[in-house]
Amino acid sequence: MDLLVGTVALRPYVFAFLAVFVAAGFVDLGWRRTLGFTACVWPVALAAELSSTRTGFPFGLYQYTGLTRGQELFIADVPFIDSLSFVFLAYAAYCLARAALARRAAPRWAMPIAAGVLMMALDVVIDPLAVRGERWFLGLLFTYERPGAYFGVPLSNFAGWVVVGAVGIGLFLTLVDHHSGRRIWPGVALYYAVLGFNLTMTVQIGELLLAAIGATIHVVVALSVWSIHRKPGADVRPQSRGIQRL
Fold it and tell me: By C-alpha distance, which of 94, 105, 90 is closest to 228?
């Protein structure tokens, strides 16, 4: 129980995002599918983290410092909450992907790949900020064996995020008959809340170039999503696909 309380105390903002995910998932997917989404994404994320800290696949080789061991829950060498965070990040990206593709007759594989790319776009800010954790209240959580080219993060990390997002969401979509959902806007709001939090912390620690690059990338992402959403084409009624238009 002490470790559970410690986990919440160390990462209150993560649990706030998780609470939003639970509420958004309930109004969008319902309880059963929200649990199903979690059951699909979390094991994939945990397996990827356990593999990466040993073999470097798929994120690149890194190690958790273990400075919070005894204060929060760990699974082997991975903090429990870190792998669980992928669930709300994947859900937020899935909602934004649905917003983009709601009016288009996209092939089935397009949704998980689009969601994986959108989840990776969040990590363009998240991981460079995290490797600077000693400069804010996160603390020095992990280190890469070889710091990468993008603000200390290896490019393989971003490819890994696409893979984890696409596989986890793809697994979920194999268990449902369509891109199910009733309301995507809470999930889209969650996506931009996570982005806003990370950009704010990036500015607060003085990494203005990283913040500017991240903000620019996400302006392009938002415009692209809006353009795809509005572009005339093969129109599919959202009611028939379980997707609500924006």
Answer: 105
